[in-house]
Design goal:
Length: 425
């Protein structure tokens, strides 16, 4: 029997769950499909987020032939068969999974077929295509990021699969508890495939109760998904509460609390939330008080992504402990938010003439860059001149705190430069 996730694969663009930034009405892939002006593309993102589904739906909506190959395991001969089919019957949509593993021989064969449009390539990868995919392929494709599904989107897809009698589990008398549905929707970290497979396993391995219903409880879904609902409560908000408590514990320098909340997130399998939140914390809450700690956090996160769980807990624990005991400062985020406030409220002003681009003929006649003073031509590589627009000439966004020796040096230097700047205009 084909897995539920396979059977419930969307047949048209309208059936796709999530990814509305790409397939929603008026969005790029929706426009391509409606105009039948498809271009080759690379879809990248975590597993189970809909890369194959999008490719299948594009084929279903356009009625083009659809073929699936794997760049790592399928041969050049398999690509030749697809190319021959395209020549005989017209355009073929080729989903090439693990496209980051495409070798040069297969790539060289594919390129001319992409150029003439016989094959519409949809590459799927979990790797960053800007780093791991050959520029020759990249230059001939559009790159779209596929994002983890939101819990509400997974919940909608699970309910649809339970009710669907032709492709889903509709022939079974399933009753699913609300807390079980929330658990499978939130603990799969945006991976719809995992959610559907867990629900199918639960439904087909659970016998009917006295009412002849297949009753899916939280305990059954936990067993089938092999994750415990450590970050949930009856209201379904605790997952985000734990993430919030994690950041606030580090901000408040409570090492043990921070490790506790990270352990809850890791035990639920939510490595990505930990990684993302740690990067935010490092630069938002520690920032200029301890830049080396920020750099080491990036290194720890990179290591964690490479090794995965359970080993990822080791570099992440080191980073959390260091961030907790580090001096704190939010002067960086405060500074940029102060600047953004001015921009968003219309306090912009024109760029001073001496700072404008002067690398074109006629720029001097317009006064562009004429009076610019090149700082490296002056003592200490600095000279007073106006950089802000006239209407913002006295703006001061950076409120240096001096919460560490390093930040105190930044504060003193900033204030000294600001004073000298103001005294010379």
């Amino acid at each position: 029997m084909q897995p539920l996730a396979f059977r419930m694969r969307p047949r048209t663009i309208e059936e796709i769950v999530g990814q509305q930034h790409l397939v929603g009405p008026g969005k790029i892939i929706d426009r391509m499909v409606k105009a039948k002006l498809l271009s080759s593309m690379i879809l990248y993102g975590p597993p189970g987020t809909g890369k194959t589904s999008i490719a299948s739906a594009i084929s279903g909506s356009t009625k083009y032939a659809f073929r699936i190959l794997n760049a790592a395991t399928d041969s050049k001969k398999d690509l030749q068969i697809v190319a021959e089919e395209a020549k005989m019957s017209g355009t073929v949509i080729l989903l090439l999974d693990e496209i980051h593993r495409l070798d040069k021989t297969k790539q060289d064969f594919l390129l001319p077929h992409l150029e003439n449009g016989n094959i519409i390539l949809i590459g799927a990868t979990t790797e960053n295509p800007y780093i791991n995919i050959n520029p020759a392929i990249r230059s001939r494709t559009q790159i779209f990021e596929v994002k983890p599904l939101q819990p509400d989107e997974i919940k909608k897809a699970v309910l649809a699969a339970i009710k669907d009698s032709s492709r889903g589990l509709g022939e079974l008398p399933i009753v699913i508890d609300e807390d079980a549905l929330k658990f499978v929707s939130e603990s799969t970290n945006g991976d719809l495939r995992s959610a559907l497979n867990a629900v199918e396993l639960a439904a087909r391995s659970t016998g009917p109760d006295e009412n002849q219903k297949i009753h899916l409880t939280l305990a059954i879904l936990e067993e089938c998904l092999q994750k415990r609902a450590l970050t949930q409560d009856k209201d379904g908000d605790a997952h985000y509460d734990v993430i919030s408590a994690f950041q606030k514990s580090i901000r408040g320098s409570d090492t043990d609390a921070a490790l506790h909340y990270m352990a809850r997130l890791l035990e639920s399998g939510d490595l990505q939330s930990v990684i993302r939140r740690l990067l935010i914390i490092a630069y938002e809450d520690i920032g200029l008080a301890n830049p080396p700690a920020c750099q080491r956090t990036v290194s720890a996160v990179t290591a964690a992504e490479h090794v995965g769980l359970p080993e990822a807990r080791i570099p992440l624990a080191d980073a959390v402990i260091e961030l907790c005991v580090s001096p704190k400062s939010n002067s960086g985020i405060s500074a940029i938010d102060n600047a953004l406030t001015d921009v968003r409220t219309g306090k912009i002003g024109e760029v001073p003439d001496h700072l404008r681009d002067s690398h074109y003929k006629g720029a001097a006649a317009l006064g562009r860059g004429v009076d610019y003073k090149y700082p490296h031509n002056y003592p200490n590589d600095w000279i007073a001149q106006q950089y802000l627009p006239d209407k913002l000439v006295d703006a001061a966004y950076f409120d240096a705190k001096g919460n560490s020796t390093y930040e105190e040096k930044i504060k003193n230097r900033y204030e000294s430069l600001k004073k000298s700047q103001r005294s010379n205009h």
